[in-house]
Amino acid sequence: MRMIEGGHGFAGDPRAVGGVGGHIGAPHSVVGQRVVRHDARDKVQAATAYAGDWAMPGMLHGVVVRSPYPSARIRGIDTTKAAAMRGVACVLTARDVPRNTLMTDVPGQTTTVGPLRAKLHVLAEDRVRHQGEPVALVAAETLEQARDAADAVEVDYEPRPGVFDAEQALAPDAPKVHDEGNLLAHWRIARGDVDAAFAGAAVVVEGEYRTQFVDSAYLEPETGVAWIDSDGVITIRLSTQVIEHFRDVADVLDVPQNRVRVIGAYLGGGFGGKEDVTVEVYLGLLAVKTGRPVKMVWTRQESLLARAKRHPYRLRYRTAAAKTGEILAQDVELLGDSGAYAYLSALVLLYSTVTACGPYRVPAARVQARVAYTNNPPTSAMRGFGAMQTVFGYESQMDRVARALGLPPADVRKANALRRGDTLPVGQVIETHCALPELIDRAWAGLGAPTPPRAPHAKVGRGLACNLQPYGRIVWLHDWASAWVGFEMDGSLVVRCGCPDVGGGQASSLCQIAAEVLGVPIDRISVHIADSALTPLAGTTTASRQLYMSGNATLKASGELREQILGVAAKLLETSVADVDLAGGEVRAADGRTMPLRQVLAACARMGVPRSHLAVYHAPAGEPVDLTKGSGKIFPDYTFGCHAVELEVDTETGRVRLLKHVAAHDVGRAINPMSVEGQIEGGAVQGLGYAMMEEVVLEDGINLTTSFASYLIPTTVDVPDVEAIVLESGEGLGPFGARGIGEPPIGPPAAAVANAIEDATGARVTRLPMTPERVARALRLLT
Amino acid sequence: MTTRLLINGRARDVDVEPHRTLLEVLRDTLGIFDAKEGCNEGVCGACTVLLDGRPVSSCLVLAVATRGKPITTVRGLERDGDLHPLQDAFLRHGAVQCGFCTPGMLLTAYAFVEAHPHPDRAAIREALEGNLCRCTGYTKIVDAVEDYARNRCG
User: Fold this and answer.
1) Which residues of chain A lie closer than 8 angstroms to B93, CB-CB?
2) Within this chain, do residues B58 and B95 fall inside the same structural domain, yes or no?
3) Distance CA A639, CA A734 (A)
4) List of chain B residues whose C-beta atoms are within 8 Å of the C-beta of residue A708
5) Residues 62-91, chain B: which have Cβ within 8 Å of A?
6) Is the pLDDT of residue A18 over 50?
7) What is the predicted pLDDT for the residue at A6?
8) Which band of pLDDT confidence, cut at 50, 70 and 90, is reported for residue A116?
9) pLDDT of residue A28
10) Are residues A267 and A321 part of one domain?
């Protein structure tokens, strides 16, 4: 199930290194190889110490008391009974939290809503705004004692009217979730003369689409252990995508930031759901209050109940096209549900706004995007981050345009595909190669010979969908990452980098990069990651950014270290630096002489030349732009992809059977093709879950899907094999020309499936997930 | 009550309350973290161990009920400190990402191939239905199990 293609035919230099520098040997000996990851070797032996596989002597167990109501006033909390129970060490409420209110600034907000200062309470004060909102904390000697005490905390709630739908939340008389009103953010793009384009169009296609709440559903729930280490440093070892939350913990505890240390364990999955703060603030509070180690493990039910979800959207599209299939204009209105708190909603909405017109040239565009507070569970980051929901909109529209004009959907997409030098509606110029036409051809051809239907009432259809997904953070966030690379005296190598590894091979890729540059066998490298006190900070493992950012930092550090070592080696061998190389763990001169690395390193020590280097990589930066004036760069770059699916629809029941899935992405450069394919295959299947089955079902803010028996994610029998096609244009901004590939593959599947269902049956499904019932409705089997 | 558990060929006498699950005893009493807790309701398969050679969700089995029956965790697959060929197949095929499902997945696959030495891909998928994986999309896991089964029979 794999296919790797070289970058021939592309304009870019395949060995471009994103301007970071460092010697790049060619052909690559480690980069591009199907390296077995060190973390995988640990994981098949259950040798990885996940956050929950950690215990401390004298450890307490912490539990969160959560609101059963989606909207209520808290008249009072009585903890007396709970605090007196056997084994209970402490019970905390909002008044015990040194700084209970966290304010978030969302930079770049340029709307009528005004600069966003979103408020979040660590523990609820006088109101709860969603079911599952944390109200109190308990720590006790055993988990049972902690749970019993949590049940005994008496909270006097007065239920209040709530609002459970983003549209209703924006009505003038809607209950206010926050005093400032329910409109959280509003982004707009206006480019070209949209009305004139519609007036002159050969065809105008209108569509309204709805997407649902979904859960990250990582197999490892939110977990951590905290203790007070020497010199009073509050140390928290947990499953997180962002070790920089040590600063949030310090702010809440009102201690200096250097008194909190976060250690990021290898994660049992993240997918964005461990980007916001989870257990760390609660653990810090309990450890400080009791002076003892505390463990907190959220149950699956708790995680499904209360953790941030993906934003459900209503997407309204009007698309104008010429007879040739050329897209003339898009008029898009997006409305998202933020749930009860802001978290990252405004930024998620920005991703939607920027990507609303897809990977196509759209000369005139109007995008209006809003996100509203409701009393539903909060929504925030999840793989794709707002650039996912829009794919269902724009790619459904592209097929409908093609159908209206009687043109092949693939041809319409290829004719409109972005090219280097084109400008997105937001005003950003595409500066790198966009391989969309080739990706479309390859994905479509990958479906092979058509599968015959299994029964007379079964119909087989095919569909495709393309996407663009930013990688790297918004340029006005001035992103950076750092890494340290150093030799030990025996020639073994150490890499230190603050990058959390969510399971995508983040740490292992850094080893491959260092091995490539420094000529060290990969099994001679140890990598230490994700410790806010001991590893150089590298930012979040989100936004498809770690290979790009930490990869570039490691490349830069390795390149500088190489120069240091080769300088000494050249002196020892009495030759020039250009005539020495590092390979196979030794120094090799152009004339065939070799010298053990150990000898060079000893000389470095004598000569006072460092055997390590710390490097910082700064991503291209920019200033916040006014989207409506359409003048700027928003993201460093984008990853493009195309998925093609074949499926069979049972026209008597509406059941859809997925038959084939081909997923093609231009990843720039595959550092480890096995990991790249893994991202593509896994992302595609998460996208199929979104398409076919996943939905957090809420009834007036009450979550009805709080177990894996009711919140269904794809199993082995729900999905077909995914064939990953990896294109390598060498055009990315990451090390060796790599692009981010963590998020992109989740985008296209839902639209590809909807397009294939229409291809099979003529019926269009516009609401996710496309359950048999919804397909049956589209087929008019149900009314 | 003291109960003798046979874990990976070793007898362990453990003081077990009768309501404790095997998963709790393995993790909390014995500090054996080979089985993972993903849902604690028998759906996700992350806590799978072999009981008498058959895969069970250890979160649904009472520890006292396993008395005297052989329990195998993923470390019990290793032979003389070397990886089992199935573990090796998972590595070569890139079937591991976050790894949280991996111990359970390996044990279910191992028991299945023991009982069905010549499976096709569809049969492998049926066998692994009770082990959720959120990262890989399953393709490489099925590749690994297929490859292992093929090589096992020579």
Assistant:
1) 674
2) no
3) 12
4) 38-39, 41, 43-44, 132
5) 73-75, 78, 83, 87, 90-91
6) no
7) 38
8) low
9) 85
10) no
Query: In this predicted structure, what is the pLDDT of residue A324?
Result: 97
Residue A696 and residue A774 in one domain: yes
Testing the interface with B: which of A219, A310, A676 to mutate, by most B Cβ within 10 A? A219
In this complex, the residue of B73, B83, B125 whose CB is nearest that of residue A44 is B83
For residue A269, give the nearest of B31, B124, B135 by CB distance.
Answer: B135
CA gap A272, A381 in Å, rounded: 5
Alpha carbon of A649 to those of A524, A596, A653, A654, A760: distances in Å? 53, 65, 8, 6, 7
Report whether pLDDT(A15) > 80. no
Task: Out of B78, B93, B134, name the one closest to residue A45 (CB).
Answer: B78
Q: What angle do CA A538, A278, A150 make, to 5 degrees?
A: 155
Q: Using the beta-carbon criterion (under 8 Å), do B101 and A219 form an inter-chain contact? A: yes
A187-216 pLDDT, tens per residue? Answer: 999 999 999 999 999 999 999 999 999 999
**Taking residues A458-472, what's their average pLDDT?**
98
Q: Check whether residue B32 and residue B65 sit in a common domain.
A: yes
Domains: count for chain A = 3
d(CA B33, CA A298): 17
For residue B84, give how far its alpha carbon lies from the nearest alpha carbon of chain A (Å). 10
Q: What is the ipTM of this complex?
A: 0.98
* Domain count along chain B: 2
Whether the ω angle into residue A769 lies within 30 degrees of 0, i.e. cis, is yes
**Residues of A whose CB is below 8 A from B142:** 716, 721
What domain range includes position B138?
85-152
**Which among B33, B52, B77 is the end of a domain?**
B77
Q: How far is A403 from A412, CA to CA, in rounded Å?
A: 10
CB contact under 8 A, B135 and A503: yes
A308 alpha-carbon distance from chain centroid: 13
